[in-house]
Description:
Blueprint: H1 10-38, H2 44-64, H3 69-84, H4 92-113, H5 124-133, H6 165-188, H7 194-207, H8 213-230, H9 238-255, H10 263-275, H11 281-290, H12 305-329, H13 335-353, H14 356-374, H15 381-399, H16 406-423, H17 435-450
Amino acid sequence: xxxxxxxxxxxxxxxxxxxxxxxxxxxxxxxxxxxxxxxxxxxxxxxxxxxxxxxxxxxxxxxxxxxxxxxxxxxxxxxxxxxxxxxxxxxxxxxxxxxxxxxxxxxxxxxxxxxxxxxxxxxxxxxxxxxxxxxxxxxxxxxxxxxxxxxxxxxxxxxxxxxxxxxxxxxxxxxxxxxxxxxxxxxxxxxxxxxxxxxxxxxxxxxxxxxxxxxxxxxxxxxxxxxxxxxxxxxxxxxxxxxxxxxxxxxxxxxxxxxxxxxxxxxxxxxxxxxxxxxxxxxxxxxxxxxxxxxxxxxxxxxxxxxxxxxxxxxxxxxxxxxxxxxxxxxxxxxxxxxxxxxxxxxxxxxxxxxxxxxxxxxxxxxxxxxxxxxxxxxxxxxxxxxxxxxxxxxxxxxxxxxxxxxxxxxxxxxxxxxxxxxxxxxxxxxxxxxxxxxxxxxxxxxxxxx
Length: 451
């Protein structure tokens, strides 16, 4: 892993609860907008509310340094603004896309906290949908590609020979002319790579004149990019051609005295090197040095649509279950049948996921709800805490479903034992405590007190 993918989740954990709350409020505003549309009078105010909450999310993502995800949230906010101003169609498709996008942000952050690497390209399919809805049909994957640009190329084997400024400018003019000839020849006949060979030779000579590693980095990466292009490892597509033209402009800027390279230009070059299937030494060295394979998602970028829909439904049911349980614990006896219905629907949704431990947790809460409905007088403070903690555990599991492992199985064992102990009239065993559950119990108690 590199610095770009080994993201420090510490700052994220400090603000994640606020981000989740803002995402939830944005989603609720969208649901209210959808309801107003169904009644024949769409209320754009709700879209503005959703955009306001999303802007808070974007600000938090910027603060913690989540490049890529911030870009995703920004594009979504622009879509909200366009819909609010009636520059984009705010129909059912808009609402569906917007809600799926909000959920994708929540899942991505949950995955980060759960241990997955920071790879914003996992959001690319949905990002393309957002930009398409905004009327932007061409989307560059490098919008979400953020490798560590602080890495420097390896040191030279030999020291660089000093060159007079006039000689340096003369060399740049010569090599730029050769680069342009090669670019023109390649554009005319992409199947003939002799033009690419000229571009590569020109960039190699320019790279050989750069001394400082930070200044030299781009030209070294460009050498890898053109090496991959020269051997046919990259297609002659529009983005590749445009990158070659931008390298030509960079040569001109270098001749004019500027050694600065735009971050986007560097990211674009690295992206094409990362995707080049090549055994060329120059290409492999760039990949290894910048650890580019770690920045590319190995798994499919999106979960199956069916499971994604179940998880979205599950999130809503957990929220409804928690709300009805808190109301009952606060003294609303009529909320108990509502809780029983909610937890039944929650359990049915969990069944569709096919996860054994998650199913056991849901079944234990269902059993407690049925047992309590038979005689509400059985309710106790201990049972209130255990059910509240179980609901919180279910919520955490829903947010991190892809990474549930042995720890979760053990937590479910303890949680089920505690609930069954309450039903049987026996307090939880002292030895059954788990640190993670103890923390959840404290959070559950706070939520009950608030309710």
